[in-house]
Amino acid sequence: MAGDRRKPGLDKEDENLWEQVTENLTPLSKKSRNIQREDAADPGSDTFAGKKSRPRKATLPASPPPAPTPYVPPRSNPGQMETKRVRRLGRGNLSFDAQIDLHGMYQKEAHSRLLMFLREARARGYRNVLVITGKGRAGDTTNEPGREAPGVIRRNIRHWLNEPEFSEIVSALSSARPNHGGDGALYLQIRRARE
Q1: Nearest to 176 by CA among 85, 79, 77
Q2: Is 134 left (phi over 0), alpha (psi -120 to 50) or beta?
Q3: What is the CB neighbour count within 10 angstroms for residue 3?
């Protein structure tokens, strides 16, 4: 019957189910019911009549939001040093302002010493530095506890230079020429200090 608008009544099975669901419920206290009634819309209000509800009063936060921090664009990772500069450094036409020798150090010590060295070089206005990492001991396969694999500084230095504290200082790098250590050394170009 398409035209029948009566609500169907609950059959016996639905009534039993409803009793099972509601038998363990406890009624809300009067206080809880009053809070819920205030939040619910009144059936006679404008909301149910299809009209817009009245705007509620805006509440101000207890304290103002913190001021936004100024945006500082991140520094890019060091790029490859210009070929012309590498040639000039290799030939001795362009001198190094400073150099540091890291080979023989443990990784943690080398990392912190390199960072201090680069910060000092930048503070002094240096532009070209030589970093000697060492190549590691050939054929050294010792697995002694507490001892790092050979050439650990050489393998990790490029990763270190991509870290934010290093890339803030170093703008470019290149493997050194054989007369300055070859694979066991790097030429680094230092960024100018910000004014």
Answers
A1: 85
A2: left
A3: 4
CA–CA dist 164, 73 (Å, integer) = 12
Across the chain, mean pLDDT equals: 76
Burial 6-19 (b: 16+ CB within 10 A, else e): eeeeeeeeeeeeee
The answer to whether 151 and 134 are in contact (CB under 8 A) is yes
Q: Are 97 and 127 in contact (CB under 8 A)?
A: yes
| Span 111-128, pLDDT tens digits | 999 999 999 999 999 999
| Cα 115 to chain centroid, rounded | 20
Residues 6+ apart with CB under 8 A from 154: 133, 134, 135, 136, 183, 184
Angle at 140 between CA 138 and CA 145, to 5 degrees: 150
Q: What is the pTM of this model?
A: 0.55
Q: Give all domains of the chain, ordered by start, each with its CATH number.
A: 79-137+148-190 (3.30.1370.110)
Phi, psi of 31, deg, nearest 5: -65, -45
